[in-house]
Write a structure and sequence with these properties.
The complex is a heterodimer of chains A (382) and B (90). Chain A has 382 residues and is α/β, with parallel strands linked by helices. Helix content of chain A is 29%, strand content 26%. In chain A, strand 1, helix 1 and strand 2 form a beta-alpha-beta unit. The relative contact order of chain B is 0.16. In chain B, a hairpin with a 4-residue loop joins strand 1 and strand 2. Classes of the chains: A alpha/beta (382), B mainly alpha (90).
Chain lengths: 382, 90
């Protein structure tokens, strides 16, 4: 292994690989360590959705700017990441939800996003198989430029492009220690040896809190197991991702024809368990066939588990750690790390290379949990 | 031997040529190869293709892959209609 590097990234998910690419593009010598294989954590279990309809301004901005990057990403990285814009249809079930939806839409529009509030009779124009009455929809919001991409292919495309620019990516390599001297990062110990560096980025997903603990820093992140399923492939019936905050369900039909979707199991507790459960399958099948009764004839193929790395306000922790110079956080994505990764890593690159900070970085720093009032993201599913 | 006519994965219609090309591109980790090509994500869940892919990978890299590192099969064992899963009867 090499002896020194400008920046060490811990974690080979989409954010780690994207950051490696962005830093390498700026001529930075960057080294990434992944304890398993690339995309082995949350990225590899991701539902693939890309949504700009958020309730907090920071998440909406990160997503809107990320979509602009996603639109050109296949060309920039010279690999197809299968990005498609079929829109996100968010179901609204009652007055209270409608009030929140109106508030969200007005904030999103102020950021330049094209998003509409639909009447119940307009919903089937977007997704014809939905039983609008059966799910008691009083309306919906729809943003046509939302969509999805292939998280594995995106991660591999970033990794391949990063390697071409000289970045070193070590898989099956575990970080044991982060060496800090006089409040400044000086190096990282791995099971393959020690490497000198002045910057370490913690992009280890649900294992980020363990990485932070190596320096004595306590992150408020909690791992939540999530389940997700895929059906057999069939004729394309709709293009939008359908989600409901009230029922917690999300599902879309991928271009190849399979439906991919998930829902939380009621009463599920935090933890690192990874066994899929029958309770999920039943709850998902019941809810999905209530949303779209015609799907009862479709075969469910397989289901799997992944993790949400959840923070107290369901927003990521980004930027330099108070008290440790050179220790950068890039975690706590709470289930939406894939869709905002292009902008997150752009902002972090500007901070690491140019020392440039931004309003978003300040709002999403670890410091925010010291205050009493937190601005919680309301629009979370799955 | 016509590599583009030898089917390795029936679910995804992948040939020996497709698999060898991905390995040559650097996807030498069985899990990364699986995610790149969607091997084992179809109705057979890898029962047909994964042992074959493992052999190809071992032949190309000269490294033995331990059996326990094979990707996990996911429930259910065979495809089940959503309507059956949604029904109350056990």
């Amino acid at each position: 292994m090499i002896k020194k590097t400008d920046v060490v990234i811990i974690g080979g998910g989409v954010n780690g690989c994207s950051l490696a690419y962005n830093l390498a593009k700026r001529g930075i010598d960057v080294t990434l360590f992944e304890k398993k294989y690339l995309s082995s954590g949350a990225t590899g279990a991701c539902g693939a959705g890309i949504r700009q309809q958020w309730s907090t301004k920071e998440n909406a901005l990160l997503a809107i700017e990320s979509v602009k990057i996603f639109e050109k990403l296949s060309r920039e990285l010279d690999e197809d990441i299968e990005f498609r814009q079929g829109g996100y249809l968010i179901m609204v079930h009652d007055e209270e939800e409608m009030k929140q939806a109106e508030k969200n839409v007005s904030m999103q529009r102020s950021l330049g996003l094209k998003v509409d509030i639909l009447e119940p009779d307009e919903i089937n124009d977007i997704v014809p198989i939905l039983d609008v009455k059966g799910i008691n929809a009083v309306g919906a919001t729809f943003c046509p430029s939302d969509g999805h991409a292939n998280p594995f292919k995106t991660t591999f495309a970033y990794a391949n492009a990063a390697r071409k620019l000289g970045a070193k990516l070590y898989t099956h390599t575990t970080v044991n220690k982060i060496r800090v001297k006089d409040g400044t990062v000086v190096g990282v110990s791995t099971d393959k040896g020690f490497i000198k560096t002045s910057v370490v980025v913690n992009a280890a997903g649900v294992w980020s809190r363990d990485i932070a603990r190596l320096t004595g820093v306590k992150l408020p992140n909690v791992p939540f197991r999530k389940e997700i399923m895929a059906t057999e492939r069939f004729k394309l019936l709709f293009e939008a991702m359908v989600i409901s905050f009230k029922d917690g369900i999300y599902f879309s039909q991928q271009r190849e024809g399979q439906i991919v979707g998930g829902i939380p199991i009621p009463g599920e507790k935090s933890g690192y368990k990874t066994m899929p459960t029958f309770a999920f399958l039943q709850h998902m099948a019941k809810t999905l066939t209530r949303y779209a009764p015609v799907l009862k004839h479709v075969n469910m193929l397989r289901h799997w588990t992944g993790f949400y790395d959840v923070t107290p306000d369901a927003r990521p922790i980004l930027g330099e750690t108070p008290g440790i110079k050179g220790f950068i956080q890039c975690n706590g994505f709470s289930g939406h790390g894939f869709m905002i990764s292009p902008m997150v890593t752009k902002i972090l690159t500007e901070y690491i290379v140019d020392g440039r900070t931004s309003d978003i970085l300040e709002k999403l720093s670890l410091n925010r949990f010291k205050g009493k009032k937190i601005d919680r993201e309301m629009s979370v599913v799955g | 031997m016509v590599k583009k006519k030898i089917i390795v994965c029936r679910c995804e219609d992948l040939t020996l040529e497709d698999v060898e090309k991905a390995i040559d591109e650097g996807y030498i980790d069985l899990e990364e190869l699986r995610k790149k090509l969607r091997i084992g994500m179809g109705p057979c869940q890898g029962r047909v293709c994964l042992p074959i892919v493992m052999k190809i990978l071992e032949r190309k890299t000269g490294k033995k892959i331990p059996k326990e590192s094979l990707p996990k099969a996911r429930p259910p064992i065979i495809p089940v209609p959503l309507g059956t899963l949604a029904s109350e009867e056990k």
